[in-house]
Amino acid sequence: MLSKLINRLRAGHLTSNNQGASFRFYHQASATERGALFNPDYNLDELDFLRAHTPPGGVSSMSAANVGTYAMVLAHHVGTLEK
Question: Binning pLDDT at 50, 70 and 90, where does residue 64 land?
Fold first, then answer.
């Protein structure tokens, strides 16, 4: 119901933080994006597992990352590369 209300009030994308990472969600066409936008604990168990096994400064690689709900959160978690 919340998704339908937001669809009526605002077309296009919504920018939101999710698990420390910034996203531009196009929630009208994607169940994954709706889930992450409207549920702050979306995929939380999986993300906690990945963060626990990927140290800050470490490396993570994703293929077929969809909207990036895992990739963006892990990128935020590992931080920037130092030269």
Answer: confident
